[in-house]
């Protein structure tokens, strides 16, 4: 009986692979360095090695495994199983699904980090029991994923929910993507740090000046300590994050918006501000019917999400 | 054999009811005044009367009919079959589906104008053969509907795709909904007319001054004739419409964006500007893979959409 799935969280630094029950209970987890510099074949073989490794450790065989899910940085093509390109991995237009499928003769599914996180939250995290969920991740960049009627929605070219690149201020700061005023250019950790550095480069009075290097961490810290410039920067970034969430509420009419990523470590301050903006900008019944909550999965979110991907996708094919 | 469906386009002025084949070929169409002032029961009875009327005219009976679709202004609750409220119809939290279902013993489906138009375009209009379509309607207001993986997506409270109320300029003009800088407040026909009237109320030199009343029609006309103020107003509104469409592309990664509604009568000028903004603001592969086209259904879009709703929803239950 196929009682397990395997999830692989493929990162630029490490590969984390878990054997899990169909209910998401992790039986064994193996973490090894990616060694991305060794190239495509080596990294693929390391991924395969972790699969063999968790099976051995759990005293299981490939015949016990229903499906394998892989979460990877994008852009990638989930339908074709191809990683198109990503800064910290050696894969270029590389099919990572087929070799693993060939090796184990098990269905293998690939999706990007944000979608995998959304699926993880939907199946085992803050969104358990909900059918329509928008997931935001706010860290160095801003990304997202969406569960609609109980399924991940990927779009035509597997690029849906490029929510970090919706325009919220047509004349706002330049984004890394080239556009002006993207959510990511206004609300990401990188953006917050950048606004802090810009402030230091002027004559404005700010306690940020004492740092050699200003990142979002220092800006949040000094805002907490009462520095007016830092408080302005944080408030501005959270206001735009609130507008981004409000736009997602107007578009998806979801039951829940889940926000994860490093920037959410500031906690209530972020969620309170986002809720305030959503209440101000959205239709009352839509705002009231939508919960806005922190991600529920912690440090293992990546591998739990990959497990959830395997369960969700293999369930579809049953 | 159930070879027909019936579509009802319920409007504040008229009720248009059509008997159609399952392929969307309209056999008979009856149009009568709504007489909204006569109240809920009277209007419901008039709707029922049109159903009986098309059946008699087509020499058919209710046993020939697979399903009935109703398109109505919103807000409404498709799941419950309830029209919540609408300015030009007498219904207040009124179930319009149940009495018709009871009368004919046929499945009856209700949806809002924008969703019905999206379904119509998907099944019989510009979006035929596509699976992921975002539909915008730009007239006095801005609304929308979305087809995802071949199905209409309605959201948690049946209010998905309130695309007219996404914020595109946090400090922009006040929208009727109360929010600042909504797409509708920037790009609707009403907004364009308002900017024209505002211009006339100042000392700026503009040929709009010759009109007693300025609506979007006069602004488009004078822009065409070379009036700089009108040209600015039009360009600004179409730029924001382009940003709204670009945001929908970033979020849905659709195969096609269809734009309908009165404002699209200006034609190429609108579509060229929208495409230009999408190309500028979206990721290249997403912009290139998404067609942006005018609505394909003409004057009968409402009733064709209602027919399409009946076909789509009854097909789901087969």
From TrEMBL, chains A, B:
<dbReference type="GO" id="GO:0004340">
    <property type="term" value="F:glucokinase activity"/>
</dbReference>
<comment type="similarity">
    <text>Belongs to the ROK (NagC/XylR) family.</text>
</comment>
<protein>
    <submittedName>
        <fullName>Glucokinase</fullName>
        <ecNumber>2.7.1.2</ecNumber>
    </submittedName>
</protein>
<keyword id="KW-0808">Transferase</keyword>
<dbReference type="Pfam" id="PF00480">
    <property type="entry name" value="ROK"/>
</dbReference>
<dbReference type="InterPro" id="IPR000600">
    <property type="entry name" value="ROK"/>
</dbReference>
<keyword id="KW-0418">Kinase</keyword>
<dbReference type="InterPro" id="IPR043129">
    <property type="entry name" value="ATPase_NBD"/>
</dbReference>
